[in-house]
Amino acid sequence: MKTKKTKVKATRSLYDLKSAITELKQKFDAESKTDIENLQNRYLGKKGLINDLMKGLKDVPKEMRPVAGQLLNELKANLEHQLTLLGNGATEETADKIDLTIPGLKPKVGHMHPISQAMEEITHIFEKIGFTRVRYPEVDWDYYVFESLNMPPNHPARDEWETFFVDVPKHKQMGKMVLTTHTTNGQVREMERLKSKPPIRMINIGRCYRRQQDVTHTQMFHQFDGLVIDRGIHIQHLKGTLDYFAEQFYGPGTKSRIRPFHFKFTEPSFEVDFSCHICHGTGKKGRGKCKFCKSGWHEVGGAGMVHPNVLKAGGIDPDEYTGFAFGWGVERTYTLKEGLNIDDIRLIYSGDLKFLEQF
Ligand code: DAH
Hints:
This protein is of the alpha+beta class. It is built from twelve helices and twelve strands. Helix content is 38%, strand content 21%. The protein has helices at residues 2-32, 36-44, 49-55, 65-87, 92-96, 114-127, 142-145, 186-193, 235-250, 308-313, 330-337, 353-356, and strands at residues 132-134, 139-141, 165-171, 175-179, 200-209, 220-230, 256-261, 266-275, 284-285, 288-289, 297-306, 322-329.
């Protein structure tokens, strides 16, 4: 009988304790919204409410005490945890849930150098009409840079290419070693790679070097060279390709213009201009002149029909095949497109992030 009574009493006590805990939690929740400062003392302090409940443990029958003690410890830990959260300005809700609507923190990522971006774009434009991108050595033999391109040793035309010579012994047939001055060095190499068998449609983009350094020149720069060789290739194919590039790179309506010029590796040779995409080739802006081009056109590079001697150097019969070629600088092509009046082109390679992050 005694046992039974105790059991009933014990169940009631545990029940009472649980409802006391629930009540205390509700009280705590309500107060935590208004009176954060004193919560620590009132609930967890020596004379706090939790200790009061702890003291009541002695009324709980022995066999139930471990459970009752555990409940109170959990309560204590829980309130301590909530107080820490409140101290950090968080609530139980915000701490336990991930709010997917909060804008994320963007990691700082870099991007490709503007000239690399331009090279990718140029490659893509020519690949669409069947050109294959190739790369040839930056450090090359005189033969590929000059001699095979119809510029024999000591020819005055070589003077234009202010060449860096590499201090290594001369090769018997290939001559001196140089830092290539133009991507035209890839033309005879490409004919050799394809075993002198047209059709050839290459776009060679790479680094070039010249002994020049001022606000419009850097010693290292980039060029791209196009070469097409097949039966029946004529100037209209060249002009069509230039117009295609102009529209693709600078936008619809941009036109190309070719003017007679002289290169040793093409005959006839031309200089290539593109119509200004700001004034659309008129040279006028409002009542005045277009400040960007002044004449309606921008000169960008050279082109022409491949000289028979160059075809011969590549093992191709000039009586059977003809070809056109063109080439110019990536930096100039790109800065024209962006309408960048960069007063010092060396900035592009200065590694200055403030400048580069604009692109
Ligand atoms: N290599 C010339 C230069 O650096 C540009 C050039 C002109 C390339 C005519 C060509 C070409 O392929 O046909 O100025």
